């Protein structure tokens, strides 16, 4: 008996399946190249297109708070003090940081803070550690302070990608997640964020994951009562850097 | 479990649900709450009907060129060293994943919520592997698993039929000693499952949309369990219905927005993730990435009048507006796909013999069609199933069918029709009561039929048991005779209305 596993990525398996469904549909294969998708309207691109940057920021803050994200606006010069105070206020004992380059930290004036954030246990997500060590560090963390790319006004969302310095477990396993996002990363809509990621990919960005995160994890599975904090972080903060 | 959740007859299931007062109240409360949230979320977006046009166009376009898009997607997964298996049916799909789990020596399998994995009966198959553990990680699915794999009630809220006290009792078996506060119950599950997650070696997720032009999958969730399922295990299997594909991330984000607003009244789900196999330099995510693309009967709808059901994005809005679902609840349908979606999809995937009753669990009110974000003409498809069952497959072998045939013959013949009219009064004597205390004068002058013996066909019971039916009058006193016997009288004088004109 042959193994079904041998049929994965097997041309016969694929061709038989696709020919069968093409026959069932009564439509020929390989007609798409002459009929690419052309959207009948431009609604996704037009969403919030008439808003000024100030209006977009206000919409972003309102929508972020509606998904139970905490929104904080600070200039870069005040980030280190804010983060130190925040960690103290929340009694953070295990902090997780990304393995940013000095330039990435310095962009936000956080190089010194990242070396001495004033928390008892500090771990860094890094490809120098094993997968298991990174995941254990993330699981132990009361707080992860990571980097976000875009703040989406229409949905109150911050986007992040998977990279060696900040992996998937970094965003999902800690109890609290704080994402630093520059105000210049403010975009109107999920469409605009997707367009920007497509541009970056065309210019060489290589990542396995684009995460669109809108607040802390939640569920309405028990009597449809909203419970904030299920498997992912129980608190989520967007730290918007006003002058970056 | 497979697509069928019960072997009981449809009427028995409905009767059982009728008696479940908590479930019925919960469904009504959910429908009302979702109405407010859904409507608000759609209004905030604006131009909702034009968004629906766009979503419909995306889904119809993809179905039209489905083999081409699947080919493009498979090519892109393979280019990234992923693996794609095309499964024509349930058996192929679950046997493939079982073989893979055995080959990978999977010990701790973790799943995130996925309708198609329930459809292919994956849990049962994986639990047959000696030494393998399996946990559903979605809160609702976990509750159902702990309650001996109870049946789901809804595709978005599978535990709608359970109250917090029942859930508390289930969790107490796992060591929970807290109260019945959902917040505390959920936090208990967070801790319980986190320990399991940390040692999970084989992850299984569904797929909201596969992205043809980059080989990624797109998942929309709120709890974070799906993302952890895609982060920690070294092997990830994605199971997707073959129709769940879009050209690019641009079309996916349109549908993500519409799905969240339609399903739960959110602008976007908390986690909207586009992901694939771990790339060079990344620390976590799957080293091994497998996609199982499942037909399992979907191709029976392709190229037919039922093709639009494959546009479905599984938001559940149709069941959230359905008046029948409101009364019957999810279990009554006997399918993992309840409500209007299930009435159309279940007979296609599971066959007419198994699900022949479902197209009749519908008042054809069209509320489902009106709310559907991808404009599936649900009530037309439900009616189309009835036509297939009656005219195509001749599935009605009941007494009703025989009676209606006899009525057809009788009404075609003036002699038979006249004889029936003459016999109606004397024949109904034994089932009629002439004494009608409290009845409106003139309503039941000849009495009322309010009883027929059990042996009488259900078509007649259907009328008599729930309605007050006046006994037919004597043939000589019926309307035809009355009309013939009465000459037109002189028109009554027009009385001028107060403040109006005589001819108003």
UniProtKB/TrEMBL annotation, chain A:
InterPro entries associated with the record: FTHF_cligase-like_sf, LUD_dom, NagB/RpiA_transferase-like
Residue stretches making up the LUD domain: 60-241
Gene3D superfamilies, per the entry: NagB/RpiA/CoA transferase-like
Coiled coil (UniProt feature): none
Pfam families on file: LUD_dom (PF02589)
Protein name: LUD domain-containing protein
Organism field: Limosilactobacillus panis DSM 6035
From TrEMBL, chain B:
Keywords, ordered alphabetically: 4Fe-4S, Electron transport, Iron, Iron-sulfur, Metal-binding, Repeat, Transport
Domain 4Fe-4S ferredoxin-type: 302-333
Keyword Transmembrane helix: no
Molecular function in Gene Ontology: 4 iron, 4 sulfur cluster binding; metal ion binding
Gene Ontology BP term (one): lactate metabolic process
Pfam family, one: LUD_dom
Alphabetized InterPro entries for the sequence: 4Fe4S_Fe-S-bd, 4Fe4S_Fe_S_CS, FTHF_cligase-like_sf, Helical_ferredxn, LUD_dom, LutB/LldF, NagB/RpiA_transferase-like
Name of the protein in its database record: Iron-sulfur cluster-binding protein
């Amino acid at each position: 008996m042959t193994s079904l596993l041998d049929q994965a990525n097997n041309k016969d398996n694929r061709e038989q399946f696709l020919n069968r469904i093409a026959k069932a549909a009564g439509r020929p294969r390989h007609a798409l190249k002459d009929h690419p998708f052309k959207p009948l309207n431009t609604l996704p691109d037009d969403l919030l297109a008439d808003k000024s940057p100030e209006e977009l920021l206000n919409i972003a803050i309102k929508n972020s708070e509606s998904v139970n994200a905490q929104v904080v606006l600070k200039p870069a010069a005040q980030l280190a003090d804010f983060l130190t105070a925040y960690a103290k206020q929340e009694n953070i004992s295990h902090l997780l940081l990304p393995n940013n380059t000095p330039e990435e930290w310095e962009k936000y004036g956080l190089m010194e803070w990242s070396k001495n954030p004033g928390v008892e246990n500090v771990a860094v997500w890094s490809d120098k550690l094993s997968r298991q060590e990174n995941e254990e560090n993330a699981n132990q963390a009361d707080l992860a302070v990571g980097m976000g790319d875009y703040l989406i006004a229409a949905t109150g969302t911050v986007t992040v990608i998977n990279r060696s310095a900040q992996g998937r477990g970094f965003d999902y396993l800690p109890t609290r997640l704080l994402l630093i996002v520059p105000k210049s990363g403010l975009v109107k809509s999920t469409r605009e964020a997707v367009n920007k990621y497509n541009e970056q990919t065309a210019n060489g960005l290589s990542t396995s994951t684009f995460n669109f995160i809108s607040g802390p994890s939640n569920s309405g599975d028990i009597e449809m009562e909203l419970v904030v904090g299920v498997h992912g972080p129980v608190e989520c903060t967007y730290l918007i850097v006003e002058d970056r | 479990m497979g697509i069928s959740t019960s072997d009981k007859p449809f009427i028995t299931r409905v009767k059982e649900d009728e008696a479940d007062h908590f479930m019925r109240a919960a469904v009504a409360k959910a429908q009302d709450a979702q109405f407010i949230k859904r409507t608000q979320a759609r209004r905030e977006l604006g131009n909702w009907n034009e968004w629906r046009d766009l979503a419909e166009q995306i889904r119809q376009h993809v179905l039209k060129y489905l083999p081409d898009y699947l080919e493009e997607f498979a090519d892109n997964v393979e280019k990234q060293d992923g693996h794609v298996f095309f499964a024509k049916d349930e058996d192929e799909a679950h046997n493939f994943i079982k073989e893979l789990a055995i080959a990978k020596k999977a010990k701790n399998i973790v799943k995130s919520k996925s309708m198609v994995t329930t459809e292919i009966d994956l849990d049962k198959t994986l639990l047959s592997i000696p030494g393998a553990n399996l946990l559903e990680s979605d809160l609702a699915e976990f509750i159902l698993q702990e309650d001996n794999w109870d049946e789901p009630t809804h595709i978005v809220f599978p535990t709608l039929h359970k109250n917090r006290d029942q859930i508390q009792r289930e969790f107490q078996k796992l060591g929970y000693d807290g109260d019945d506060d959902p917040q505390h119950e959920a936090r208990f599950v967070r801790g319980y499952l986190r320990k399991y997650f940390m040692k999970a070696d084989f992850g299984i997720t569904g797929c909201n949309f596969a992205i043809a032009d980059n080989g990624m999958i797109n998942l929309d969730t709120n709890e974070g369990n799906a993302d952890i399922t895609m982060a920690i295990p070294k092997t990830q299997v994605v199971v997707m219905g073959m129709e769940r594909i879009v050209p690019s991330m641009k079309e996916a984000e349109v549908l993500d927005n519409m799905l969240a607003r339609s399903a739960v009244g959110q602008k976007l789900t908390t986690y909207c993730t586009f992901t694939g196999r771990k790339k060079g330099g990344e620390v976590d995510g799957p080293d091994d990435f497998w996609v199982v693309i499942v037909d399992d009967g979907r191709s029976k709808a392709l190229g037919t009048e039922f093709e639009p059901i494959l546009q479905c994005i599984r938001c559940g809005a149709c069941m959230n507006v359905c008046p029948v679902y409101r009364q019957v609840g999810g279990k009554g349908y006997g399918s993992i796909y309840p409500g209007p979606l299930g009435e159309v999809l279940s007979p296609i995937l599971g066959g007419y013999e198994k699900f022949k009753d479902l197209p009749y669990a519908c008042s054809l009110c069209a509320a489902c069609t009106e709310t559907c974000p991808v404009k599936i003409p649900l009530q037309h498809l439900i009616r189309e199933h009835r036509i297939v069952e009656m005219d195509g497959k001749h599935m009605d072998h009941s007494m009703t069918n025989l009676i209606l045939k006899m009525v057809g013959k009788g009404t075609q013949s003036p002699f038979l029709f006249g004889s029936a009219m003459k016999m109606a009064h004397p024949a109904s004597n034994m089932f009629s009561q002439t004494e009608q205390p409290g009845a409106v004068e003139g309503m039941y002058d000849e009495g009322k039929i309010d009883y027929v013996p059990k042996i009488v066909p259900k078509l007649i019971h259907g009328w008599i048991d729930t309605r007050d039916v006046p006994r037919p009058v004597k043939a000589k006193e019926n309307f035809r005779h009355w009309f013939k016997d009465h000459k037109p009288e002189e028109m009554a004088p027009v009385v001028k209305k107060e403040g109006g004109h005589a001819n108003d």
